[in-house]
Amino acid sequence: MTTEQNEQAQDLQQEQAESQTAQTQAETEQTDVSVEDLQAQIGKLEESLKLEKARTANAVYEAQKSVERIQRESDKHKDTVLEKFAKELLDSVDNLERAIQAAGEEETPVLEGVKLTLKSLLTTLEKFGVVEADTQNGFNADLHQAVGIDPNAKANEIGTVLQKGYTLNGRLLRPAMVMVGA
What we know:
There is one protein chain. The protein has 182 residues and is an alpha+beta fold. The chain folds into two domains: 37-128; 130-182, Head domain of nucleotide exchange factor GrpE (Nucleotide Exchange Factor Grpe, Chain A, domain 2, Roll), CATH 2.30.22. It has two helices and six strands; from the N terminus they run H-H-E-E-E-E-E-E. It has a three-stranded antiparallel beta sheet with strand order 1-4-5. Strands 2-6-3 form a three-stranded mixed beta sheet, with no helix packed on it. The relative contact order is 0.08. Homodimer. Its main location: cytoplasm.
């Protein structure tokens, strides 16, 4: 009986050894196949990563362009609003200048107050880029509007300024209405 048991134990060990050998061979074959599969997967993942990086770069580029476009539109809108506001204030400047002219030579506290108000308003306008158009260096069709001929002025020279002109950050806000020599 012991011999039979020993034989059975040996048979069992042989079967287990054969099974382990077969399993090791299968794992080796599976490992070879797995390495190839893994390399293929790595290649696919690298391609996918390149595609996603390109998509991300494109999205970042589009976002930057959108921000720049919105900024340009905002600046343009701000300039338009500032231009409209400044044009409306120019009427007040004109009225204050007319009040000073109408007062004549007599210095009164009211006239002094009007002059100070005009000076304050012009200073505020200058802070925001509104400046008086130059009328000292001859007629310039880009800055001046000729509304008549001044017989006392030289040709192409400004004789009389009927209404001052103004520019906003270098752009014409309102042309100066002038009389020009012939």
